[in-house]
Amino acid sequence: MTTFEGSHDGKDMRVGIVCSRFNEFIVTALLDGAKRGLSSHGVSESNIDVVWVPGAFEIPIATKAMATSGRYDTLVTLGAVIRGETAHFEYVAGPVADSIAQIQLDTGMPIGFAVLTVENVEQAVERSGPGAGNKGEEAAIGAIEMANVLKALR
Questions:
Q1: Which residue pairs, CB below 8 angstroms and at least 24 apart, start in 129-135?
Q2: Does residue 2 form part of some domain?
Q3: Which of 2, 13, 30, 31 has its CA 20 to 30 A from that of 129?
Q4: How far is Cα 72 from Cα 66, in angstroms, rounded to an integer?
Q5: Helix (H, G, I), strand (E, B) or coil at 132
Q6: Is 88 an annotated catalytic residue?
Q7: Structural domains of the chain, count
Q8: 11 by DSSP, 3-state: which?
Q9: Which entry of 54, 65, 88, 95 is annotated as an active-site residue?
């Protein structure tokens, strides 16, 4: 039996991060977490590119452009969709998640997903804080692992 596992070694990896400006104070905290996670696993700051888009709905198109560019080993998506009083949440949250999943399947590019879908600002703050549980950090570390497991499988 052969077992394949991805390591958390990000040395020499090129990583792209797509960030939504909408709810920027939350996304900036997610980005801080992602950079912390990448750095602590060997990814050099000079090997990280960050792209800002207007809102979560625009994350997939920028992600696809990065995934097909040939420049990156893995990507991370960061955003925050907070339920409000309109149906906007339903029209954004699900389609963004579905699109990112499809981009992974279409391109073979592993993508860490930290587009928060929460009920309120308090939940978003809990998931983007500086300590344990920052979803940006978790997504970045997961992206490194997936890039390594796919490399082993190929």
A1: 129/29, 130/29, 130/32, 130/33, 134/29, 134/30, 134/32, 134/33, 134/36, 134/37, 135/30, 135/33
A2: no
A3: 13
A4: 7
A5: coil
A6: yes
A7: 1
A8: coil
A9: 88
CATH code where residue 113 lies: 3.40.50.960
Paired with 140 in beta bridges are none
CA distance 73 to 52: 19
Task: Kindly state the DSSP code that residue 53 receives in the 8-state scheme.
Answer: E
- Give all strands of the β-sheet with 15-20 in edge-to-edge order: 48-53, 15-20, 74-82, 111-118
Q: Which alpha helices (H) appear in the chain, and where do they start and end?
A: 24-40, 59-67, 88-107, 121-128, 135-153
Tell me which residue range forms the domain holding 138: 15-29+38-153
| CA dihedral for 133, 136, 137, 141, sign (positive or negative) | positive
Whether this model's pTM surpasses 0.85: yes
d(CA 71, CA 141): 19
